[in-house]
Design brief:
With about 70 residues, this protein is mainly beta. About 10% of the residues lie in helices and about 30% in strands. It is built from one helix and three strands; from the N terminus they run βββα. A hairpin with a 2-residue loop joins β2 and β3.
């Protein structure tokens, strides 16, 4: 984003969304607990199998603080 651009975060149902794939199970085979995102309205999750691994695909508004943190990790 260019400097000086006034950007307002959009976390409404009309927001652009992005996804991140997360492991569904830890190294011991225990499943992770999934909680809804309280920072964006379009959040939802789905189960995906990628190259034989079961993943949880979380969808967030791209301006969502939790999404931004997830894609930085």
């Amino acid at each position: 984003m260019a400097e000086g651009t006034d950007h307002q975060s959009d976390v409404t149902y009309r927001a652009l969304v992005g996804s991140v794939d997360l492991r569904a199970f830890d190294d011991d085979g225990n499943s992770y607990e999934i909680n809804a995102c309280h920072d964006c309205l379009p959040w939802h999750a789905e189960v995906a199998v990628v190259e034989g691994e079961i993943l949880v695909r979380e969808w967030h508004a791209i301006d969502c603080p939790q999404f931004q943190q997830l894609i930085q990790d």
